[in-house]
């Protein structure tokens, strides 16, 4: 198959700096994490939180997410580590690559919840705050698959087809030269979903975990159709003709949609505070005879600020805010 136009793949995804290998995939992940934290900080402060708390929370969420990503990869590609002739100890060699997004999201959320409780933060506002930034992190992370020439789709001759070197083509596709760039599809989908999520949160003042639920719905909707294009090997057998990740997307979409509807009926609007009861900054005010006058002045000041800049506690003040590996071993 020959195309007049196509997207070339990078010739190399690892650069040696003396004894230190610098992996493009790792750089993509780091860039995504930095962007997600920055977006989360802006959204958190806009909702009434304290600056720096999302950065502190990342200390919990990131390690949990990495462990979850590795566990999911090993569980779904177990033959790479526990099959005939394989060495099970290599399942612990994280530096060789192999990550799965579903595990990263699941355990990353657990880490965020643990950190939130220890910091006196309300869990659902925290997850709602972080969800949009995760989409941006995923958009960055997917470009690591481009450097690794992995997790691409079926052969195609579309103008945006992706060139894949012969040694990276799966069995049965050695004669094909260009494939669907599913990394690009998912990256663009994640950015579009980010825009929808930010708009919906500002427009409808989503709360009580509904931003997170909408994130899950939007991401799985895109991931589901992208899975139909992918041809990379999955060690677990297909179920009723669909890949494991396609079924995972369907189940999570339905669960998130159900939660969104039930939550909207039971808890309309948004939480009044992002802190747990009894936690958060102590209220300030005057205790003397001028207290009432000071309160009135404060109210007038707040009213003026709201007119000038929009709703501070409910909306961001400005624009806000993977898979595969660094060694050619794909995740999910």
TrEMBL record:
Residues 270-332 are annotated as: Disordered. A 1,2-diacyl-sn-glycero-3-phospho-(1'-sn-glycerol) binds at residue 142. It is found in: Cell membrane. Its EC number is 2.5.1.145. Coiled coil: none annotated. Residues 290-305 have a biased composition (Acidic residues). One of its GO terms (molecular function) is phosphatidylglycerol-prolipoprotein diacylglyceryl transferase activity. It comes from the Bacteria. Keywords: Cell membrane, Glycosyltransferase, Membrane, Transferase, Transmembrane, Transmembrane helix. GO terms for cellular component: plasma membrane. Pathway: Protein modification; lipoprotein biosynthesis (diacylglyceryl transfer). It is a multi-pass membrane protein. PANTHER family: PHOSPHATIDYLGLYCEROL--PROLIPOPROTEIN DIACYLGLYCERYL TRANSFERASE (PTHR30589:SF0), PROLIPOPROTEIN DIACYLGLYCERYL TRANSFERASE (PTHR30589). Catalyzes the transfer of the diacylglyceryl group from phosphatidylglycerol to the sulfhydryl group of the N-terminal cysteine of a prolipoprotein, the first step in the formation of mature lipoproteins. This is Phosphatidylglycerol--prolipoprotein diacylglyceryl transferase. It comes from Nocardioides donggukensis. The gene is lgt.
């Amino acid at each position: 198959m020959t195309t007049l136009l196509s997207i070339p793949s990078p010739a190399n995804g690892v650069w040696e700096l003396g004894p230190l290998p610098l992996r493009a995939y790792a750089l993509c992940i780091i860039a995504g994490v930095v962007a997600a934290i920055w977006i989360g900080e802006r959204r958190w402060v806009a909702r009434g939180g304290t600056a720096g708390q999302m950065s502190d929370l990342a200390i919990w969420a990131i390690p949990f997410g990495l462990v979850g990503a590795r566990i999911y990869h090993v569980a779904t590609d177990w033959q790479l580590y526990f099959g005939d002739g394989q060495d099970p100890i290599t399942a612990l060699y994280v530096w060789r690559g192999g990550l799965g997004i579903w595990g990263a999201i699941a355990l990353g959320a657990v880490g965020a919840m643990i950190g939130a409780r220890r910091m006196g933060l309300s869990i659902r506002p925290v997850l709602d705050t972080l969800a949009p930034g995760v989409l941006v992190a995923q958009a960055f992370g997917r470009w690591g698959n481009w450097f690794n020439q992995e997790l691409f789709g079926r052969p195609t001759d579309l103008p945006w087809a992706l060139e894949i070197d012969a040694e990276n083509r799966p069995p049965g596709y050695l004669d094909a030269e260009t494939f669907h760039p599913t990394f690009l599809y998912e990256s663009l989908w994640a950015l579009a979903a980010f825009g929808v999520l930010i708009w919906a949160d500002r427009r409808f003042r989503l709360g009580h975990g509904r931003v997170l639920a909408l994130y899950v719905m939007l991401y799985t909707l895109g991931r589901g159709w992208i899975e139909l294009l992918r041809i990379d090997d999955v060690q677990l057998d297909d179920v009723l003709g669909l890949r494991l990740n396609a079924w995972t997307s369907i189940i999570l979409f339905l669960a998130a949609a159900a939660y969104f509807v039930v939550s909207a009926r039971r808890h309309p609007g948004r939480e009044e505070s992002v802190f747990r009861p009894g936690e958060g900054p102590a209220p300030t005010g005057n205790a003397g005879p001028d207290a009432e006058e000071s309160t009135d002045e404060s109210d007038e000041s707040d009213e003026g600020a709201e007119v000038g800049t929009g709703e501070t506690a409910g909306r961001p003040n400005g624009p806000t805010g993977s898979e595969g590996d660094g060694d050619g071993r794909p995740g999910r």
